[in-house]
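The instructor's notes for this session suggest beginning with a concrete chain rather than abstract definitions. Hand out the sequence below and ask the class to guess, before any prediction is shown, which regions might be ordered.
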Amino acid sequence: MTTPFDAEKPRKTGLFAGLRASFLTGLVVIAPVGLTIWLVWSVAGWIDGVVLPLIPYAFRPEHYIGINLRGVGVIFFFFFTIVVGWIAKGLIGRSLIRFAESLVDRMPVVRSIYNGIKQISETVFAQGERSFEKACLVQYPRRGIWAIGFISVPAKGEIASRAETGGRLIGVFIPTTPNPTSGFLLYFPEEDVMELEMSLEDAAKLVISAGLVYPNGREGKLPQS
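After discussion, reveal the predicted structure:
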């Protein structure tokens, strides 16, 4: 017979609960690795299916070893892209591109598709060296509420001249959670942008996790007064 004054004994974890916890832990470890391998394998196979039919059979590995190696098409595509980029940087290549684009501009439907794809490609690939500078804190959407942002570039041209401010404006991208690729581009006075010491990668992790996981378990450094 037990009384309310008896010490509470710790509950024993059942076998099923332990197996369930181990299974979920293993799933967390395996799922990212497995999905990454599957995605890379699938993309490599898709590129092979597009590129290899365009390569003469004499240049394919199966002509010599009798088996088809996945990823060979990726290698051909890689070197072909380098050659095209090298040619496009030259005078002749730029002239050919301008001539081809002038022809495309005369085709109403094709022009819209080409310009859209070109704009996306330039944003994703050609401007890869133009990345955000630093992570920052800004008060958004009102004073007293702080949001993580990524510092872009100072306002230029018409934006800088028409904005009613006496100082310089800084472009800040405010990402959304849990998808940091969408968000808002806002221009703040330079004095209202507080730069952070954490890296862009750490700030992105913090946004993706909705603030639940601080990057690498660090507490960050407080500004010295």
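Then share the key points. The chain has a mean pLDDT of 82. The CA atoms of residues 50 and 73 lie 8 Å apart.
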